[in-house]
TrEMBL record, chains A, B, C, D, E, F:
Phosphate binds at R89, G127, T128, R129. PROSITE patterns: RIBONUCLEASE_PH (PS01277). The gene is rph. The lineage of its organism: Bacteria, Bacillati, Actinomycetota, Actinomycetes, Micrococcales. This is Ribonuclease PH. It catalyses: tRNA(n+1) + phosphate = tRNA(n) + a ribonucleoside 5'-diphosphate.
């Protein structure tokens, strides 16, 4: 019997997931996350204060930037700094990460502080945006803790409303599968990224027909699989934060 | 009794939709589409031949660019040409339109021809990307007809696999609503754009929690509403093409 | 007898000119102007206040930006936003429009208010810059009225010193002609754009030998024709404002 | 009696004009031109061959680039290379110089050769574009001679149809004046640049009302003055070429 | 007695140096190098063939790009991709790394192959350019081996002429010190980077007076210290390659 | 016997050096420097005040920008303003000039004043960066004198700590040579630029192996030759300042 997936996983299994918290000596929060061979360094930079246009409203701001090292991928890609512009895909993912993180932060409770999350893909093997979001949550949690210890955040405030995790799902040869590696992603007819809270509610759902359009039943199957995946990631995040 | 919506629509109604086909004397296909006060000029540029890196494979290419005039919106936005870079939102929508259109085109049947769809928002009142996709389909259909008449496309080929329409849906004060105008969009807690085929299958589903995360039941309600909306748009497109 | 011009006009006739005032629901002033198949959407954005470097002098500012949609022309042109820079021709025309409009505005009477005129060419068939100036004057007039109604401009102030119109003239096969369409423009040996006030004085005169240099007699003939043309446009503007 | 002009000139006099031919050891043609304190280094780069899109038509191409050193002016201007974009004024003048030079070159006689003229303003005191054109003509003439000696241009071909010179004129306090220095230019109500051939015909006429619009009589007066000025420059160019 | 250096090193000691060879699963050669808390990921991308302008000469090319993650440093730096341009320091270091590597490669022996070395600083604590060069050499060596195994490089060819290592030295309070950490670098009056071969000859010497100019005796002292440092690094590289 | 150098110089001789002080009527300090056929226009722009981020510290700032005219070199180079970015080499040299000048300026004595030095290469024949530094020193000295006369600099302050000169040296066919012309520079195996004070101490030493790495003895020989060269330049600068 041939295996469905190159690494022997069943369709509903995540790849091995690891979180290396506190990877950076420089950042206020950091996490080197890996989903199989996908490795993303997430750092959180905490600044007391907000941009001038936001000042005086008692609210903070969280934003994110995503990027890939030129040789994270199988063949080298030119640097966006050298090309002089940020590509559409990079823009799109940076916006997704920032928007997702803001959904679990109470900006009033954060107070007038700014957190920038940088997600740099050191090695890419599919699912870089979902690994980035899942790791970014841990870097964010560390940075919030750092801010609380230094009293930039009020002791009674609870800026984190929930935890956040993300996973990709897709349909390959008719079978819905969880957490696609690059070679699987290429073959998937439908591709979906789901960002969910620790409570199992949706923050973002993005499904795309790469090949044939998909019907409601397929969509439902993918959503079931995705929520099971983010639930597992939530548990792994809980363990990482407990260390 | 107060009205739910500023223009008196029921939650499941589209705004008045019009298609002005053949608006441009210059383009091979064109349509000025309006969804209420949102007006988008869609033009299709047909070129015989494909970029060098695609040549010799017997396949064509369809791509799209979206942009907004600086005073399409209520306050003026600086031009991206003057700023010297395309913004993230613009990039994201251009990619969405191109990807969606490609889902209903058989590239083999198109043959080695390139179609570029430009969607320029002349006036914006919410739902610009969904109006753009819905109008772009008509411009594309015209351009394909133009190509067939000039024998750039084989007589027996049927490059269009299906029709394509898109609509936005959102939850406002707990009520799912169809085709949000700008003031509604701003108030929506959850915001979703759905691109669907004339057969009622999904090409793209993008749901975002602008406020609180949403649950499965809310997601299901929005999908129901969206499909009803795209079905109505499909019928209007059919009438426009029949004229 | 063969016709001199493709559309049967005599050399001294304008193409059909229309002004669709108040086209935009968003802008403080707007006009969709057409000179034959050339269509330009002109919007005026009125802002109370001036840039910091001008503040405190009791004077206002008027500026303009011109741009063409990528498929306004017969073959598609790449977007300047995508190329990352504004081209020389675009710069040149934007500067011409702004300079011309400022010649009929009393900046003291305008007070510390800023007006930005955007001229976006939706369809191009020659004479886009002259159509833009002629339509921009109407958008400007509307925006000044808007500012006066909201008391941003003093009731007694008369910021508009005169009306403004522009037209192109050229010599084709030895015959001076008014308001050249694109195919005529290409054939013209000498090409001139004239911007004039309602009183018939010159604001800008730009004559260029595309082929052989021109002599004083030819220059004089072109100026006569141009002033006759701007006088007709002035009358059409007067009627449009009276509606 | 007070002098009309700061340097004691009568209204119809040029400033002292000098041409330093062959200034550059590197370029195929060069001239350091000065109109009073305005100094422009003009170099002509001759390349055998034309850009690919022009090849095979037996015709050449002439183009120009204008730029100012950052401290050519009284206060320092940021470099366009550092700002990352070429400004509108620079673009406009580069296009003017190139267009003007092409008006006196027979592209067929030039053959498939390309000449790029660089006009770099080393010191600016008004009239930089007219000095640039006048000096550029000499650099061009040298480069054509260079090309003929090396047989890139046929012995019997006469690519230069005429000579070319340019001068500014303006109305200051009601008096038309020739060749404005910077302090005069600032005061001028109407400002005109005229490019003319050695035979006294017009190549380019650009008149702008900086203050009040101008009438036909003023325009005529300025044209008379300008042609007298370019005639004098033509004579000085003839002498410089004879050396 | 107080310690001279924050980490207790004597002036002539390197920080702990580690080389993690083969870090990347994607690149043809890679090394994660650390000099104390400075960590640089070096990847080598091997391409069979050379850019068109170099083709047909039987020679290869080696080039390098250096960059820093935004939060590699103590406070966050804006991304160069977002700013739209590569900064002077980045350019300068990229050029230094490429030039240095080329000094130990025989381009004829490499044959028509291209190697691009990317050095991305994941964490910065002084000496990032010297760590980058020292690690880049190992990535280069791996990539050359990869190319030889796939026969892109002739079996008898020996493209690597020597090994390459680099170290920084500086004078702090009058004492010459080896391999400066960031806090030391800031205090150094004179700062020098030396790139040397395994044989102990110089490839690049860059000494800069940050404070007072330095004399010949100080220069000599720094060079002695640097060569001792690169000799130690050479030995560590030899061990890493032997693993 | 054949001559070692194309212009008959002995290896330890400078090319003819001239300084044209006060070349610019616009700048506060200026010098047109030539080293043989290399000609660089250096202007110093003195501004009372410092950038906002430096204000209130009682210290000044000196910075520099280097650029080459497109046809300074034997074949034309595209303008960096047109390419939209400053190249690595330009950046590197601008930084070198600024850093070198700052080494001989006491920023406290300068007070809150800013000096920008522009070095524009009008003609290039090797050694442009060393000629630029040597001329920039004279422009700087003039601008400081200008600032003192206008009392922007305190009468007792001596912001200039020393004079500054720079020269290139290189090894050609085994012979160390001073002040390389372009054709020599191309042949040099090792290339070094040395910036030194009038007292003979080093401000910057940059040696690069273009071919084979160099040993300590070669390095020592080059340094000897360079210091002799900068000493001669110091003497010529002294004479120029005395005029």
């Amino acid at each position: 019997m041939t295996e469905l997936r190159i690494d022997g996983r069943t369709p509903d299994k995540l790849r091995p997931v690891t979180f290396e918290r506190g990877w950076s000596k420089q950042a206020e929060g950091s996490c080197l996350v890996s989903f199989g061979d996908t490795k993303v360094l997430c750092t959180a930079s905490f600044t007391n204060g907000v941009p001038r246009w936001m000042a005086g409203k008692g609210k903070g701001w969280v934003t994110a930037e995503y990027s890939m090292l030129p040789r994270a991928t199988n063949s080298r890609t030119d640097r966006e700094s050298v090309k002089g512009k940020v590509g559409g895909r990079t823009h799109e993912i940076s916006r997704l990460i920032g928007r997702s993180l803001r959904a679990v932060v109470d900006m009033k409770a954060l107070g007038e502080n700014t957190i920038v999350i940088d997600c740099d893909v050191l090695q890419a093997d599919g699912g870089t945006r979902t690994a980035a979001i899942t790791g970014a949550y841990l870097a964010l949690a560390e940075a919030l803790e750092w801010g609380r210890e230094r009293k930039f955040i009020a002791q009674k405030a609870t800026p984190l409303l929930d935890s956040l995790a993300a996973v990709s799902v897709g349909i390959i040869d008719g079978v819905p599968m969880l957490d696609l590696a690059y070679t699987e992603d290429v073959r998937a007819g439908t591709d979906m990224n789901v960002v969910a809270t620790g409570s199992g509610t949706f923050v973002e759902v993005q499904g795309t027909a790469e090949g044939a359009p998909f019907d409601r039943a397929e969509l439902d199957g993918l959503l079931d699989l995705a929520i099971a995946g983010t639930n597992s990631l939530t548990e792994l995040q809980r363990q990482a934060l407990a260390r």
